[in-house]
Amino acid sequence: NRIVTWVELVIVLKRTGVKIGWQDGRDGWWHDLVEQASDQLQPEEVYAEDPLFILYTSVSTGKPKGVLHTTGGYLV
């Protein structure tokens, strides 16, 4: 198993007026990054168990729980 021990970039999409924690040099606004992105990208090889995204469950009691989805089974 490969374990991620560092984070290179956090992409933030602002949908509300809630103040968020921000780390300069790591965090970036979605709308800024999209404007800078090239439309020509080379494919990146990934393993089936590499993390793809975290989806937070909707619960009526307690705190939401993060569910890690891996790249296996998704067409990217």
Present the secondary structure layout.
Blueprint: E1 10-12, E2 27-29, H1 30-36, E3 51-56, E4 66-70
Parallel strand pairs: 1-2
Antiparallel strand pairs: 3-4
Would you kindly provide a written description of the structure presented here, covering whatever features stand out?
GO terms for molecular function: acetate-CoA ligase activity. Keywords: Acetylation. InterPro entries: AMP-dep_synth/lig_dom, ANL_N_sf. Residues 12-74 form the AMP-dependent synthetase/ligase domain. It holds the Pfam family AMP-binding. This protein has 76 residues and is mainly beta. The chain has one domain (10-70). Helices cover 9% and strands 22% of the residues. It is built from one helix and four strands, in the order E-E-H-E-E. It has one helix spanning 30-36; strands at 10-12, 27-29, 51-56, 66-70. The strands form two sheets. It has a two-stranded parallel ribbon with strand order 1-2. It is extended, with a radius of gyration of 15 Å. The chain starts with 9 loop residues before the first strand and ends in a 6-residue tail after the last strand. The mean pLDDT is 86.
